[in-house]
């Protein structure tokens, strides 16, 4: 390999370094191997630091800051603190953070109050080279002031704040036009940002690809009565492909009503328990995204404390596709969950229905008596919006109740629900018994109407 010209070697080096990039968005240290191989490789590596994205990864408390800084050339530094709070570890971390002109990344995991008291003054300075920042608190509640990062982070590409209240966040976002990934998660009440302010902050982020905004609990959001109605103008986020939100329907409605994200591929929405579910703006928002507008598969899963509705372009026999809409509806035991998800499906699914496959699953029997005890009209109401479904897959728990609901249809109604149905798959279907009896009666009625249905066991 020593006979290769420099430009070919650099391409090989770049591939080698990038292939070894660590998980959790940490930079690679594989370039150390290159500089220790021979003098030529060492010189070539250090004369092309930008091309190879050379970064000193300082893991606190695994290594000494003084030793690291003395051994290596003046390269960008990525700080990774694992949450240790010893005085020696904090002193080393302080020494590196004071090199704010060289710091390209900071990841502070499980920051304690004591550690934050040490770091907070240093974080008020400008970090012109900072591209990645991740701060996750351990004890509530670290406070970030308006002067955080000097009030501006123009080079920032990734920003993750978990459990950290930072209401001035939109002010920091406006000049951060290079931002690609933003996570403001587990937001406490003291960190509340209105939908209008958040959209204002996002308005300059034309390169953002991933956005996550999650509140810890309903108590962390103010009542709708004291909120300002959103404007009718929309901010274009042309590069956004992933959106995650956790909060109230009212908040997400006000947020997405002001956003247009035509490149959106994956959406995860977690809504807190509400008496009624009305999200017409969310439905419009999803329909404006071309890659989400024609899902082929729908999966409805009843869990112990929430309902999951997942829509994706693939059929049940295909592998998972990232182009997915997932809606998790938090449900209290007093809420009739079947009615709740039926309301969503009736009002928010694409029309006309594009679905070919539907999968319904109830995961835990004993916590779902309000669903299990009502095998009739409400199950039929859930099925009605899926009038193009050809393949229906039912878990073992829910099979009897859906089959009983279908069997209860009158002769003239047997093709009104799931008129395009061709196949029913039921997990653990036995040759005889109540499930087989109920679904067979439905199949016989469909046969008489000229719309035969195949019944199969789903193993």
Sum up the structure in keywords.
alpha/beta, elongated
Gist?
About 30% of the residues lie in helices and about 20% in strands. It is an alpha/beta fold and about 450 residues long.
Q: Which helices and strands appear, and what pairs or packs with what?
A:
Layout lengths: L5 H14 L11 H5 L3 H8 L9 E5 L4 H7 L5 E5 L5 H11 L5 E9 L1 H10 L9 E6 L20 E5 L6 H5 L7 E7 L7 H8 L7 E6 L19 E2 L5 E6 L1 H8 L2 E2 L5 E6 L8 H8 L9 E6 L3 E7 L12 E6 L6 H12 L8 E6 L6 H4 L4 H7 L7 E4 L1 H12 L15 E5 L6 H15 L5 E5 L1
Helix pairs in contact: 5-6, 8-9, 9-10, 11-13, 14-15
Description:
- By secondary structure, this protein is of the alpha/beta class.
- Among the domains are: 1-53, no CATH class; 294-321 and 333-459.
- It contains 15 helices and 18 strands.
- A 16-stranded mixed beta sheet has the order 1-2-3-4-5-6-7-9-11-14-13-12-15-16-17-18. A two-stranded parallel ribbon has the order 8-10.
- α7 links the parallel β5 (158-162) and β6.
**How do the strands of the widest beta sheet line up side by side?**
1-2-3-4-5-6-7-9-11-14-13-12-15-16-17-18
Radius of gyration: 27 Å
Query: With helices defined by DSSP (H or I, 4 residues minimum), what is the helix count?
Result: 15
Mean pLDDT: 82
Structural class based on helices, strands and sheet pairing: alpha/beta
Q: Give start-end ranges of low-pLDDT stretches.
A: 316-320
Strand content: 15-25%
Main sheet: strands, sense, barrel: 16 strands, mixed
Number of strands: 18
Cα separation of the termini: 53 Å
Helix content: 25-40%
Anisotropy-based shape: elongated
């Amino acid at each position: 390999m020593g006979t290769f010209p420099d430009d070919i070697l650099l391409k090989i080096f770049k591939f080698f370094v990038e292939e070894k990039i660590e998980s959790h968005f940490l930079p690679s240290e594989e370039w150390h191997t290159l500089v220790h191989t021979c003098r030529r490789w060492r010189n070539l590596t250090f004369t092309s630091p930008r091309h190879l994205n050379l970064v000193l990864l300082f893991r606190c408390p695994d290594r000494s800051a003084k030793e690291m800084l003395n051994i290596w050339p003046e390269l960008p530094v990525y700080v990774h603190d694992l949450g240790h709070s010893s005085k020696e570890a904090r002193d080393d971390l302080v020494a590196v953070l004071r090199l704010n002109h060289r710091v390209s990344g900071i990841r502070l995991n499980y920051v304690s109050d004591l550690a934050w008291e040490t770091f907070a003054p240093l974080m008020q300075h400008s970090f012109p080279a900072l591209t990645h920042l991740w701060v996750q608190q351990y004890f509530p509640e670290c406070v970030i002031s308006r002067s955080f990062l000097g009030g501006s982070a123009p080079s920032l590409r990734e920003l993750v704040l978990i459990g950290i209240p930072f209401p001035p966040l939109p002010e920091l976002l406006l000049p951060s036009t290079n931002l690609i990934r933003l996570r403001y998660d587990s937001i406490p009440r003291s960190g509340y940002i209105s939908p209008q302010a958040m959209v204002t902050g996002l308005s300059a982020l034309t390169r953002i690809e991933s956005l996550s905004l999650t509140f810890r609990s309903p108590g962390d959001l103010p009542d709708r009565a004291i909120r300002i109605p959103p404007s009718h103008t929309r901010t274009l986020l042309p590069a956004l492909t992933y959106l995650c939100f956790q909060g109230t329907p009212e908040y997400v409605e006000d947020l997405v009503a002001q956003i247009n994200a035509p490149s959106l591929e994956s959406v995860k929405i977690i809504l807190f328990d509400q008496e009624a579910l009305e999200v017409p703006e969310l439905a419009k928002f999803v329909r404006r995204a071309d890659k989400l507008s024609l899902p082929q598969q729908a999966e409805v899963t009843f869990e112990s404390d929430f309902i999951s509705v997942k829509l994706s372009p693939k059929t049940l026999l295909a592998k998972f596709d990232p182009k997915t809409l997932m809606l998790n509806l938090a449900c209290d035991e007093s809420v009739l969950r079947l009615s709740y998800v039926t309301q969503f499906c009736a009002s928010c699914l694409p029309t006309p229905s594009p679905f070919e496959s539907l999968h319904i699953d109830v995961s835990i029997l004993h916590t779902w008596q309000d669903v299990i005890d009502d095998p009739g009209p409400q199950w039929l109401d859930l099925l009605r919006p899926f009038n193009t479904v050809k393949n229906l897959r039912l878990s073992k728990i829910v099979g009897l109740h859906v089959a009983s609901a279908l069997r209860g249809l009158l002769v003239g109604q047997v093709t009104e629900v799931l008129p395009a149905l061709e196949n029913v798959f039921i997990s653990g279907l036995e040759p005889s018994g109540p499930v087989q009896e109920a679904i067979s009666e439905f199949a016989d009625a469909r046969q008489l109407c000229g719309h035969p249905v195949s019944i199969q066991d789903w193993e």
